[in-house]
Design brief:
By secondary structure, the protein is mainly α. Helix 6 runs antiparallel to helix 8. The chain is elongated and about 75 Å long. It is a multi-pass membrane protein. One of its GO terms (cellular component) is plasma membrane.
């Protein structure tokens, strides 16, 4: 029973994902979720308007009340398309990322997205004298397609990376089957004009006293930080229209500071949902890999490659769908 447990868990997970996908896109579940989120957003917008009136009137506690409403708006708004839930979740499912780094990535992407809204409104009203319609159109018709396109590219990157890893595993397995048994190897060495290098990548050469390349951990960290920057930029490229609306209102009411704080409160509300998705994805990945690791680790490696392919394909397909809807 224990031997078959990893396969059972993997099968249950795949069935659960398939059922969820059928409900979301086959039975109208996605529309139900979006309608419920839109209704909650409308209620939050009405509460936001009341909070702004209370703040303008100098009522006690109005500031913190407005911040709470903005946080709630961001939370409910995160149920809609975009905001990086899909990208963060897919990245956590497809890549071996530590929980703290994935959590920081989820929070940072939401806060940078809020900063994008602040910069857009401040530049629009102070430099170009744009109104609400122009700012909203810029966010929805220009920045949203850019964001969805970048997210789709990230999905394609995960997909191709997973396929490459899977191909290498398959090729190595085929090669080991074709070349089993003892083999005679020719001993040879490479001579260099000045000195030889009997060291691994990133180690200091005993002859010349310097390194000839980064270590594996340094290369992995560099790639991880580049991936993190790409993810944050792709998510933050599209500012939240609710934050744009709030900033315009507070600018006209001469309480812009409250609008800036409210935009970041919305970002924290969005981050709370994105963070849950990220932790869930990382937990699913870690649980599956821990149970699928065989003696030589190839079982876990194959599952990791499959997860990366599935996550990348899902991100690519859904972000392309969002991109087509936005153009």
């Amino acid at each position: 029973m224990t031997r078959h447990l990893p396969g059972i868990i993997a099968a249950i997970t795949l069935v659960a994902v398939a059922v969820l996908a059928i409900w979301l896109w086959g039975l109208g579940g996605a529309d139900q979720v979006l309608r419920a989120a839109a209704e909650a957003q409308r209620e939050a917008q009405n509460a936001m308007a009341r909070g702004l009136r209370a703040l303008k009137g100098g009522q006690p506690g109005a500031w913190w009340g407005l911040m709470g409403v903005c946080f709630a708006y961001g939370f409910f708004h995160a149920a809609g398309p975009g905001h990086g839930k899909l990208v963060i979740g897919g990245y956590g499912l497809g890549r071996a990322v530590t929980l703290w780094r994935l959590s920081a990535l989820a929070v940072a992407s939401s806060l940078v997205q809020a900063a994008t809204a602040v910069l857009l409104v401040l530049a629009g009203v102070w430099m170009f004298d744009w109104g609400r319609e122009r700012l909203t159109a810029t966010a929805e018709n220009l920045l949203a397609p850019v964001s969805y396109g970048l997210m789709a590219l990230l999905g394609l990157y995960l997909l191709l990376r997973g396929l490459r890893r899977g191909w290498r595993l398959w090729d190595a397995r085929r090669h080991s089957h074709d070349h089993h048994g003892d083999h005679g190897h020719h001993d040879h060495h490479h001579t260099h004009a000045d000195h030889h290098h009997d060291h691994g990548p990133g180690e200091v050469c005993s002859s010349c006293g310097h390194r000839h390349g980064p270590t594996l951990s340094e290369a992995e960290n560099l790639r991880s930080w580049r991936e993190a920057a790409a993810i944050i930029f792709s998510i933050a490229a599209r500012p939240c229209t609710g934050a744009v609306f709030l900033l315009l209102l507070t600018w006209r009411l001469d309480v812009l500071g409250a609008g800036v704080a409210g935009a970041f409160a919305m970002g924290l509300g969005t981050a709370s949902v994105t963070l849950c998705v990220a932790l869930l994805a990382a937990g699913v990945r870690g649980g599956l890999l821990a149970r699928m690791m065989s003696g030589d680790g190839t079982g876990g490696a194959r599952i990791a490659a499959a997860l990366e392919v599935c996550a990348g394909g899902l991100v690519l397909a859904l972000c392309l769908q969002l991109l087509l809807r936005s153009i």
